[in-house]
Design brief:
Blueprint: H1 6-20, E1 25-31, E2 37-43, H2 45-50, E3 59-61, H3 70-73, E4 78-80, E5 103-110, E6 113-121, H4 129-183, H5 198-236, E7 245-247, H6 249-259, H7 261-266, E8 270-274, E9 278-279, E10 282-284, H8 286-303, E11 309-316, E12 320-326, H9 349-355, H10 358-371, E13 375-380, E14 386-393, E15 400-401
Parallel strand pairs: 8-11
Antiparallel strand pairs: 1-2, 1-6, 2-3, 4-5, 5-6, 7-10, 9-15, 11-12, 12-14, 13-14
């Protein structure tokens, strides 16, 4: 199904769920980003034939949804082999609804987030653990394929945009060379001593700078997306390995900052490093932690305006090292923050240009932090910048002496 359209993939998975569990009906619903509502995606063909509801509902708030919403409320599969039995959880169903005798539904997880719910009904025999296992495995496979297609579509989009920006930049380069060549023997001067054609060159330069920004933007998005695809592919295959050893976090942060120093200098960003003289070591994977800090610093630099400020701070707390990376950028909209660590999340078109691609890199960061038994969180306010906080367990009794640098 890898090359099939999204609707065909979901339709196939839904109908296959009905067959595998020997059910009569099935449905598939996706969760809203805040997990507050179930959005009905589709019903099986047989369910549609039997359903006589005139005004079908497509959005179901979890707070007011009955028994079939328990899979979300309890965050686990729910089997109801006697649907006609009285239950305080049942809200009833509207006139014309398919009559249910048995029902089973499962939440589909992406990490610790529920992304969808799949359900089947009216098997002639009781649903059992075998039915449950088959439905879960099928739907997990469907979700992986949906994510793969989302990433492939994004990869194709970013590739096209990058090619477009590169063509535009080359065109402007040629335009500038041809313009200068045609004017090199003609240098009319105004009464103020300025070249008459200087304004034209300024316009070309402005257009070139915008084109360069676009090339850098989509190059970065492509790199981040490819990294995410490689990581998630290895993760799904169980091939992500960690090599833990005593690590000096301050050195890794210095290395990550050095990887971005050219952008820092180009934007004339003030970098403030608040790092104590002596820090405990942590037990960590040096390579993966360096990748994580590079992503966090890279994001902070991206949103810090020219002549802005980037702060990197480490505090030795009782059980952890607390690392903070703070930018002086515009801040992240509050509604986006809960989704920034997701593998892939569709954000609104109005803010897509600014924030697209962030979530795939932060997803990897969270996975790395989780593997180190630490935690990560984002604090941000519009107009007041963004802080990313990471806590990593320290090795008690260890320390690394260094000089404070700012």
């Amino acid at each position: 199904m890898a090359g099939a359209p999204l609707q065909e993939i979901t339709d196939f998975a839904r109908e296959e769920a009905v067959k595998l569990t020997k059910s009569k009906q099935g449905y598939l619903a996706f969760m809203s980003p805040d997990e507050g509502s179930l959005i009905m995606h589709s019903w099986s063909k047989d369910a549609m034939k039997e359903c006589a509801i005139k005004d079908r509902q497509f959005i179901y708030p979890i707070e007011t949804t009955g028994l079939w919403g328990e899979a979300v409320k309890q965050r686990k599969p729910i089997i109801t082999n006697d649907y006609q039995a009285s239950s305080s959880l049942k809200k009833g169903y509207p006139q014309g609804h398919v009559e249910l005798t048995r029902h089973m539904n499962v939440p589909i997880f992406d990490g610790n987030r529920i992304v969808a719910v799949a359900g089947v009904g009216n098997k002639e025999e009781d649903y059992d653990e075998s039915d449950l296992r088959q439905l879960i495995l099928l739907m997990q496979g469907m979700w992986r394929l949906i994510q793969r297609k989302q990433m492939e579509d994004a990869l194709q989009k970013y590739s096209k945009e990058l090619s477009k920006a590169e063509v535009e930049l080359k065109s402007l380069d040629r335009m500038e060379v041809e313009f200068i060549s045609s004017k090199k023997d003609l240098t009319p001067v105004t009464e103020y001593g300025e070249l008459i054609d200087g304004e034209t060159l300024d316009i070309i330069d402005d257009l070139k700078n915008k084109a360069i920004d676009n090339v850098l933007h989509y190059s970065q998005r492509l790199r981040r997306l490819v990294d995410s695809i490689v990581y998630t592919s290895m993760e799904d295959a169980g091939k992500v390995e960690y090599n833990f050893e005593p690590v000096d976090i301050s050195r890794l942060l210095e290395d990550s900052l050095l990887d971005t120093i050219f952008v820092v200098e180009e934007k004339d960003i003030l970098v403030e490093k608040i790092i104590p003289d002596s820090l405990p070591l942590i037990n960590g994977d040096e390579e993966k932690l360096t990748d994580m800090f590079t992503v966090l610093i890279d994001d902070a630099i991206r949103f810090t305006p020219p002549k802005g400020k980037l702060t990197i701070k480490i505090d030795a707390e009782e059980d952890d090292l607390h690392i903070m990376v703070k930018d002086s950028g515009p801040g992240i909209p509050e509604k986006l923050i809960p989704h920034m660590f997701q593998r892939f999340y569709e954000i609104g078109a109005s803010i897509k240009q600014s924030y697209e691609g962030l979530e795939s890199g932060l997803y990897i960061c969270k996975k790395i932090v989780d593997a180190h038994k630490g935690s990560i969180q984002i604090e941000s306010k519009i107009g007041a910048g963004t802080e990313v906080h990471v806590w990593l367990p320290r090795i008690s009794g260890s320390s690394k002496n260094r000089n404070i640098q700012k």
